[in-house]
Structures are given as structure tokens and as C-alpha cells.
Amino acid sequence: MSIKGKAYIMGAYEHPTRDAPDLSTPQIHAQSAKGALADAGLTKDDIDGYFCAGDAPGFGGMSMIDYMGLRNVRHMDSTETGGSSYIIHVGHAAQAIAEGKCSVALITLAGRPRQNKFFPGGGGKPGQLTDGAPEAGFENIYGGSTHNTYGMCAMRHMYEYGTTSEQLAWIKVAASHHAQWNEHAFLKDVVTVEDVVNSRMISDPLHLLDCCVVTDGGGALIVTSPEIAKSLNRPKVKIIGAGESPKGPMGGRGLDLTYSGAVWSGPQAFAEAGVKPSDMKYASIYDSFTITVLMQLEDLGFCEKGQGGKFVSDGNLISGVGKLPFNTDGGGLCNNHPTNRGGITKVIEAVRQLRGEAHPKVQVPNCDLAIAHGTGGSLGTRHGAGTVILERE
After folding, report:
1. 29-38: per-residue pLDDT in tens?
2. Domain range spanning residue 80?
3. What's the whole-number average pLDDT of the chain?
């Protein structure tokens, strides 16, 4: 069953906190839900579907439904795919609505990594055998982390295609140009290519400014049926395509670090929507690291594989300057990254753009089509991708 036109995003809210010593994770979930409901013009009694991922504490959906007093939920989903979770939840919510499982779906995210002293993607300490994913006992004992994996992806991409650190730096530069207009952004200073390549090395060839920020925060979305959407006096953002896909190295056999699951999730979403990459007016791309953005743009079809470095250079991602404005809130590189599942903010900013509610300095003129894309797991290895195509009605 196609979800094209079967559901609408009618509420969106990004929690303003970036440092939450006085809030619990459930409180941020609840406050984000309240904000999204107010934005949509609905109440919690209207909610009959609830979606969350691994950031929801306790028993996930069950615990949060009880905590928030959601009395009428008849469908719930706690799919966990890391940073792509909440992109995928938008597609799942649309599918549930299309199938009649629910008519008003609430999606919430919250995280407090700054308080929990948790760094997304951090592996075990050297010499420490940890439980967890099947590969943990083989890799975490060496102190592996997300930084190491993404650094390897960047190094391999440079080897294969001649990509440079300066080209990667342009992605951070673009994000910083946008973040300066976001009052809530964690990093508001505009940076240069030189600033990025001269920042200290974290995991060769990735520098400090190639890496996302670590913040507390959260967000929420309200997805409704067309009938509910028509009854609300709010701008309508239609979900017209969605795709999801894993990528696994199968124990390391046939491992290629230069592409991601987006090579499958992107075509699914574009085909269902009946549009192509060149039709997109705005792109929200998960930006855990600069290399993440570059590889996603290639894999989603915005440029040929290996041409990402040239595509992102010279301000091509800056709103009002380049061909493809991206992450106009500052993204994970400058605005916020509350958990390693921060993809919900990508949808929220895409909704702002389609409604014409982004900051005037970064609002894309006549923005009627947008893509939001998330990555989960480790970019070039165990990885899940989620893509949604949204349209202003």
C-alpha cells in the first residue's frame, strides 16, 4: 500500500533546551509532545497512535504512554534504528494511518547526553568486554567508537575519489552560516574552511569541527489522517514518499565504506513520491559528521558517487547562495544533537521550510518539496537509512 498523500504532518515542535540539568528525559518527551499538540491545535485525548525509539526510558512506548496519560492509544511502534529512527517513524506513522490503525499519531524524542555523560556511539573502554550487539565482543574491546568508523569512511572516500578535508569543511561552514540565525543553536559562530581544517584532529581525517555537537533536547511531531488535517487551521505538509533500508557488512565480507543504506532508501522514497532529487527545494540531511552529509548526498542521487566533494564546495549548501540549501537550523553540526537518534529535528526543520516558518534569513523561496533523511548505526558498516519526501499542500 502506498502512503502517498495518506497522511499529513500537522504539528512540529523542537525543545529549546540544549542543557537540561533540571529536567528528566520523560519530562522532555512530555513537553515536546505538548508543544507539537499545541502547534497542531489538538489535545492529548486526540492521540490514538504513539511512536518512539530507544531514547524513551523504561519500557519505551508503554512507559511513555502511561507517563503522558495517553488514554486512547490503539497503535504503538518503538522501532529502533539509531539516527534514522525518527525518519522511519514518520513513514511508519503514515502507513499505520493509511491502514486505519490510528488517525492521530504522536512521535516524540528526548535525550540528556550532557547530563548522563554519554557520548553517542561511544564504545567500551580498551580491554573491556561488553554485552550488546553481536559484534561488540570483537570490536569494543579495542575501544572503538563512532568517530573511528566515520573517520575510516572519510579516509576511504578520500582514497577512492580524491575528496579533501577542505571540501568536507564546506559542510560545517554551511551549517554555521545557518546556525547564526537560530537563537537556540548550541554553536552560533560562523566558521571558515580554515577554522575547520585547523581544529584539532579527532579521528584522522576528521577534525573537531567535522563532528556534531552533544546536547540535551528533544522534539515531537503530529501525523494525522487527511480527514483530521482538513479540520485543522494549520499549514498542511503532506507525506508523499518514504523508504527504509539496512546495510550490513555480513561479518566484514564485501565491506565497502564509501556508500550507505541511502542507496536503497532514497530510490524507494523518490519512486513512491513520483519525484526526483533535482526536484527538491530543501534537504534535511543527518549530520553526525561532515562525511555523513557528503555520502548521503551522493547516495540519494544529488550527485554522482565520488562527486560529493565538488557538490558541497563553495557554499552550495548555504541557503540563498547554493543550489541545495541544507539543515537551515544549523543541524547536528551546530544546532543540537540530543541523542544518537536525533533525526526528528531533520523532519521538524523540513516542516518549517515547507510552511514558510523558517528564519527569514534562511527561508527557501517557494519551498514546496523537501527531503528529510537519517542515518543510523555506523555509516559504512552496520547501518540503517530512512528517507521521507514531504510536500507543501
Report:
1. 999 999 999 9
2. 8-117+211-392
3. 91
